[in-house]
Amino acid sequence: MNKTNFLIGRGELLTHDIKGPRRMPGKAEVYSLEQACHRLVPQFSQAASALDLIGNDACPGDFGVGRMMLNPSFIARSYFPTGLLRAAGLESIGSRTVKVTPHAWSKKGTPQESLTTEIFVAGKRQAFRQLASLAQAIQPDSDEANDLTHIEQFAAFIPAERLSHCGNTNDRFFEVGIHLLPDQDPTYIQRAFVQFAEKQNLKVHSNLEFTAGNLWFVPVEGSRSAIENLSQFVFIRVIRPVPRLRGLRPVQRSSGLSVGCHLPNEQPLSSEPRVAILDGGLPEQHAITPWIRSYRLLDPNASDISEGLDHGLAVTSAFLFGPIQPNGMAPRPYSHVDHLRVLDQDIDTEDPLELYRTLGFVEQVLLSRSYQFINLSLGPDLPIEDREVHAWTSVIDDLLSDGDTFMTVAVGNNGELDKVSGNARVQVPSDCVNAVAVGAANKDNDAEWARAPYSAIGPGRSPGVVKPDLMAFGGDTDRYFHVLAADKKPVLIPQRGTSFAAPYLLRSAVGIRAILGSDLTPLAIKALLIHAANKSTHAQTEVGWGKIPEDLMQIITCPDGVARVVYQGELKPGKYLRATLPLPTGGLAGKVRLKATFCYSSPTDPQDAAAYTRAGLEVVFRPNDDRIQVGKANADTKGFFDMKQFATEQERRADQGKWETVLHGNKSMLGSSLKNPVFDIHYNAREAGARAIGPERIRYALIISVEAPRHADLYNEILHAYTKILVPIQPQITLPIQV
Question: DSSP class of residue 23?
Fold first, then answer.
């Protein structure tokens, strides 16, 4: 019997710090100082006049807020207008991505509509009145002058622009996002907002508020006309109707037939993984008691929702057993599970603010740091938008930014809605960059699958363009996902929905942890799943990185002619790390294929939708250290990651692609062209769109596969070449096993 070759670990021992290359000088300007003043001085005056028309009670501390739009050629971190803002007495309080056709740009040809960054700036209204004179007095060749020439437009942030998707006249519950001043006591603005809202006869539900970054989210109750008056308050970023919660209405088949199955007698494969399902609870009668470690109600005084109990049991069944074959034997669970009821009461008619209570319970669980693996198959019934980050996304991303938790989130069942309007896009909070957004495949066959029609589609927001992250079987009309029903006996019901694809994928993640133990971090497990996914011929906006294999052994083992190496470590801000790709002694013969997947978790700035992630990687591939151009210190580079999947050419020129938290690519080449190949990794840090001050290290995981058909024993050849450095990651349980 052939020996099973498991993943190779300790790849981080093949890395070392290097000195970074010299940075290239900045690009040419598009406007002279004189041109910039001619265009902007009238705009500064108009903005000041518009702010002066707002009542004093809507301008706490006599503050105003303006919109500073940058020319698309200057939206990189290095062009942030720090000098101009300081000189003007203004500060950035947030940003978003908008489209503009600039008057001029640094590229050749006629300017075309492009994405750019719009910065929200706050300051005393007197500072806005003085902007015009300040611009005319700026000295040429100063930092302030350079910043001024990078501005495309400037205007006041007017009330009508704060109202987003304000629904119909019957809506009475709205969520309001409010800018807070960085590094200042937030209570001043919060108290002023509550007082202003009460003057409009609005009720502010401050007990349900959330703060994420410099944004304060709070639900407000009242009439549509009062909400329009509320939009005068200058620090409001966005007002929108409170959406309903989704997730409790899977695309379910109606059937009165009762189909049985058999459940295993064994305990879970491992007792170590700590797993939580956050959902609608469990019914009194169910057949999964042996595998439930604990069942907890986040609010023990609240009542159940009947449909929530059925949904919670179905989701938990999908995690424990995956899709169960009618009249068949369910597979052995990989771990026990805790079910936490985060959803209660009648969300449809009695309590529109259940959305905020539920997020509070999710936050409570994440803050406890009690779980390594979590599934969330519910959330707001709200497709994501590019201009704003929702409270659910902001709160969850912040609590996942340390990389210690693997969390799956269902993308939603709205994939058959209108695509042009954006109603079919992935739903909040599956736009989280630090969670794994899961879509549903229509089959569990690895060769014939496609996106289930109901499964929501991408793209996500930038950063976070590739959404969904991964696909897993979720059921369809000709191949249902069978889960356990509310019965003491193991009885099945047919279902389909992303609510089941997400916990099914989590099952694979926990399976990796159960088999290979704690040597693999949650980040490494995420990287492994993406690395093993197959996109087939499907569009990335439909399936993300692709569907994970049904057979877990395909993810954690190396077949003949393949070696998969796991690198795990930390990156220092501003520094360069060189990662050596392992090759056998004497190199490789014939055609080879290299595949690499980088994953890292990033702190986020929710108020800066245009610069959401604080951490970014620039990764270059150097295949041959003999090929060095005259005068250069490092070997020539060769493209490896296809940045088109992240951004247009214009966006890539402005460094947008490097702020993605996942990089995945592959290249085929001749083995003879590789000599001491390396990846050079540069960690950039930013904060609120500008250069970060005192950024922290971040964790990363890198999976590299070397595939060489002419080297059947490649796995052992590489281990032999790196004796005492690389080692197999041995299973922590007894083999053989059924997976």
Answer: P
